[in-house]
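Review form for a predicted model. The reviewer records the input and the model, then writes brief findings.
Reviewer: anonymous (R2)
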Amino acid sequence: MKSMLKHVAMLSGSVVAAGCAIPTNPPQAQVVPYQAVRHSAAGAEGYYALGKYYIGQQRPADALIEFTKAVNANPNHIEARNGRATALAQLGEFRSAAGELKTALERAPEAVHLLNNLGYVQTLGGQFDEAAETLRKAFALDPKNERVRANWA
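Model under review:
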């Protein structure tokens, strides 16, 4: 029994000693807020990619905003102009879409896909004579293009 009391006393003493090693005022952890916001749509290519995403999501108004940002960042971005025209056409703005495609064609006059899209938008807008002429140009540049053939038929 004495041995057991001796061990209990030693154990109690070590617990008390260990307790003394803990500071009464431990240092407080500091939380420093850090926030970095990065937008994937940095520059014309990023805005263009986001516009394409929105077109795929059937969100032409949102796509138009992003394609416009891309064109503002790089006025020579032909595909962003094509994207703007697509969004405008989906919103029923056929004349504006045609104007955007004509601007793109000033920079890339032999881009068959732009001519095809212009002919299609002109058809949707009721400009049938203009559409026929535009699609003839596209067909002359690429007679095997299936989309041009389908729109010209």
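Findings: The radius of gyration is 34 Å.
Further findings: DSSP finds eight helices and no strands in the chain.
Recommendation: see findings above.
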